[in-house]
Amino acid sequence: ALTVCLLALALVLEGAARLRHLAFRVKSVAEAAARLNALGVATEPIRQDPYTHCAMTFFKDPDGLPLEIHE
Question: How far apart are CA 64 and CA 41, in angstroms?
């Protein structure tokens, strides 16, 4: 489902030159990162967002653009 969402989003945002990155809200960053890792997607270490104090991490899409998962 995540792959389908990312592909659909990529089509919608094609050509969005000013886009810095996209963030996806999840209930558990640890669980989402574990699932991504199990699918062969590398994630950065989980850290705490300095503004929201919630867990967060980043991974890259197939083009190397950063994507964030955030609680």
Answer: 12
